[in-house]
Amino acid sequence: MTGRTWMALGLGVALLTGAAARAETERPATAAERFEKMTPEQKQALRGKLREFKSLPKDEQTRIRGNLERWRKLPPEERERLRANQRELRKLNVAERQALREQARELRKMDPERRAAMRQRMKAYLRENPERREQLMENMRRWRQMTPEQRQEMRERVRERRRR
Protein backbone atom coordinates (compact mmCIF):
# COMPACT_ATOMS: atom_id res chain seq x y z
CA MET A 1 0.00 0.00 0.00
CA THR A 2 1.38 3.41 -0.88
CA GLY A 3 1.72 6.44 1.33
CA ARG A 4 -0.84 8.10 -0.90
CA THR A 5 -3.40 5.46 0.05
CA TRP A 6 -2.91 6.21 3.71
CA MET A 7 -2.96 9.89 2.91
CA ALA A 8 -6.35 9.42 1.27
CA LEU A 9 -7.71 7.72 4.35
CA GLY A 10 -6.48 10.51 6.59
CA LEU A 11 -7.90 13.09 4.27
CA GLY A 12 -11.40 11.72 4.54
CA VAL A 13 -11.99 13.46 7.82
CA ALA A 14 -10.29 16.64 6.70
CA LEU A 15 -12.23 16.82 3.44
CA LEU A 16 -15.55 16.48 5.22
CA THR A 17 -14.76 19.06 7.85
CA GLY A 18 -12.48 21.51 6.06
CA ALA A 19 -14.35 24.67 7.00
CA ALA A 20 -14.72 23.60 10.61
CA ALA A 21 -11.05 22.67 10.73
CA ARG A 22 -9.90 26.08 9.59
CA ALA A 23 -12.19 27.77 12.11
CA GLU A 24 -10.69 25.77 14.99
CA THR A 25 -7.54 27.89 15.27
CA GLU A 26 -9.32 31.22 15.82
CA ARG A 27 -12.54 29.98 17.29
CA PRO A 28 -14.83 32.58 18.90
CA ALA A 29 -16.74 31.43 21.96
CA THR A 30 -20.09 30.64 20.31
CA ALA A 31 -21.49 29.60 16.97
CA ALA A 32 -23.44 32.86 16.84
CA GLU A 33 -20.22 34.88 17.22
CA ARG A 34 -18.54 32.85 14.47
CA PHE A 35 -21.54 33.41 12.23
CA GLU A 36 -21.53 37.16 12.87
CA LYS A 37 -17.85 37.40 11.85
CA MET A 38 -18.58 35.85 8.44
CA THR A 39 -19.00 37.81 5.23
CA PRO A 40 -22.44 37.76 3.58
CA GLU A 41 -21.05 35.36 0.96
CA GLN A 42 -19.75 33.02 3.66
CA LYS A 43 -23.10 33.13 5.45
CA GLN A 44 -24.94 32.32 2.23
CA ALA A 45 -22.55 29.45 1.48
CA LEU A 46 -22.99 28.11 5.01
CA ARG A 47 -26.76 28.22 4.70
CA GLY A 48 -26.48 26.32 1.42
CA LYS A 49 -24.27 23.69 3.06
CA LEU A 50 -26.76 23.36 5.90
CA ARG A 51 -29.63 22.82 3.43
CA GLU A 52 -27.50 20.27 1.59
CA PHE A 53 -26.63 18.52 4.87
CA LYS A 54 -30.28 18.38 5.97
CA SER A 55 -31.25 16.82 2.63
CA LEU A 56 -28.87 13.89 3.22
CA PRO A 57 -30.17 10.59 4.59
CA LYS A 58 -30.07 10.39 8.40
CA ASP A 59 -27.35 7.72 8.39
CA GLU A 60 -25.13 9.94 6.25
CA GLN A 61 -25.73 12.90 8.58
CA THR A 62 -24.77 10.67 11.52
CA ARG A 63 -21.58 9.56 9.74
CA ILE A 64 -20.58 13.16 9.03
CA ARG A 65 -21.30 14.24 12.61
CA GLY A 66 -19.14 11.36 13.83
CA ASN A 67 -16.29 12.47 11.54
CA LEU A 68 -16.58 16.01 12.85
CA GLU A 69 -16.53 14.81 16.44
CA ARG A 70 -13.44 12.68 15.78
CA TRP A 71 -11.80 15.71 14.14
CA ARG A 72 -12.45 17.88 17.17
CA LYS A 73 -10.87 15.27 19.44
CA LEU A 74 -7.63 15.12 17.42
CA PRO A 75 -4.54 16.80 18.84
CA PRO A 76 -3.58 20.03 17.03
CA GLU A 77 -0.46 18.45 15.46
CA GLU A 78 -2.55 15.62 13.98
CA ARG A 79 -5.03 18.13 12.56
CA GLU A 80 -2.17 20.03 10.96
CA ARG A 81 -0.80 16.82 9.47
CA LEU A 82 -4.22 16.10 7.97
CA ARG A 83 -4.49 19.65 6.62
CA ALA A 84 -1.08 19.21 4.97
CA ASN A 85 -2.30 15.95 3.44
CA GLN A 86 -5.38 17.76 2.18
CA ARG A 87 -3.21 20.40 0.53
CA GLU A 88 -1.21 17.63 -1.16
CA LEU A 89 -4.41 15.95 -2.35
CA ARG A 90 -5.57 19.20 -3.95
CA LYS A 91 -2.37 19.24 -6.04
CA LEU A 92 -3.35 15.95 -7.71
CA ASN A 93 -5.37 15.84 -10.89
CA VAL A 94 -8.91 14.45 -10.96
CA ALA A 95 -7.88 10.96 -12.12
CA GLU A 96 -5.28 10.64 -9.35
CA ARG A 97 -7.76 11.74 -6.71
CA GLN A 98 -10.32 9.27 -8.04
CA ALA A 99 -7.76 6.46 -7.91
CA LEU A 100 -6.97 7.34 -4.29
CA ARG A 101 -10.65 7.38 -3.41
CA GLU A 102 -11.05 3.93 -4.94
CA GLN A 103 -8.07 2.62 -2.97
CA ALA A 104 -9.53 4.12 0.19
CA ARG A 105 -12.86 2.37 -0.49
CA GLU A 106 -11.02 -0.92 -0.90
CA LEU A 107 -9.17 -0.39 2.36
CA ARG A 108 -12.39 0.40 4.21
CA LYS A 109 -13.78 -2.94 3.04
CA MET A 110 -10.94 -4.78 4.79
CA ASP A 111 -11.43 -6.00 8.31
CA PRO A 112 -9.77 -3.64 10.84
CA GLU A 113 -7.20 -6.19 12.05
CA ARG A 114 -5.92 -6.89 8.54
CA ARG A 115 -5.80 -3.17 7.73
CA ALA A 116 -3.88 -2.38 10.93
CA ALA A 117 -1.44 -5.23 10.34
CA MET A 118 -0.81 -4.05 6.78
CA ARG A 119 -0.22 -0.48 7.98
CA GLN A 120 2.29 -1.68 10.59
CA ARG A 121 4.16 -3.84 8.07
CA MET A 122 4.41 -0.92 5.64
CA LYS A 123 5.67 1.48 8.31
CA ALA A 124 8.26 -1.01 9.53
CA TYR A 125 9.37 -1.79 5.99
CA LEU A 126 9.83 1.85 5.09
CA ARG A 127 11.70 2.57 8.34
CA GLU A 128 14.07 -0.34 7.74
CA ASN A 129 14.55 0.38 4.04
CA PRO A 130 15.16 4.08 3.40
CA GLU A 131 16.36 3.31 -0.13
CA ARG A 132 13.04 1.55 -0.84
CA ARG A 133 11.17 4.59 0.48
CA GLU A 134 13.10 6.75 -1.99
CA GLN A 135 12.25 4.29 -4.77
CA LEU A 136 8.56 4.53 -3.86
CA MET A 137 8.76 8.32 -3.99
CA GLU A 138 10.39 8.13 -7.42
CA ASN A 139 7.69 5.73 -8.58
CA MET A 140 5.02 8.18 -7.39
CA ARG A 141 6.68 10.98 -9.37
CA ARG A 142 6.68 8.78 -12.48
CA TRP A 143 3.04 7.85 -11.86
CA ARG A 144 2.04 11.51 -11.76
CA GLN A 145 3.68 12.05 -15.14
CA MET A 146 1.84 9.17 -16.84
CA THR A 147 -1.22 9.69 -18.96
CA PRO A 148 -4.48 8.10 -17.76
CA GLU A 149 -4.05 5.43 -20.45
CA GLN A 150 -0.55 4.59 -19.24
CA ARG A 151 -1.79 4.35 -15.67
CA GLN A 152 -4.60 2.02 -16.68
CA GLU A 153 -2.12 -0.16 -18.55
CA MET A 154 0.09 -0.27 -15.46
CA ARG A 155 -2.86 -1.25 -13.25
CA GLU A 156 -3.72 -4.08 -15.63
CA ARG A 157 -0.11 -5.33 -15.55
CA VAL A 158 -0.14 -5.38 -11.76
CA ARG A 159 -3.47 -7.23 -11.67
CA GLU A 160 -2.10 -9.77 -14.14
CA ARG A 161 1.00 -10.34 -12.00
CA ARG A 162 -1.16 -10.90 -8.92
CA ARG A 163 -3.19 -13.55 -10.73
CA ARG A 164 -0.06 -15.62 -11.50
Automatic annotation (TrEMBL):
Keywords: Signal. Residues 1-23 form the signal peptide. Residues 150-164 have a biased composition (Basic and acidic residues). It holds the Pfam family DUF3106. Residues 140-164 are annotated as: Disordered. InterPro entries: DUF3106. This is DUF3106 domain-containing protein.
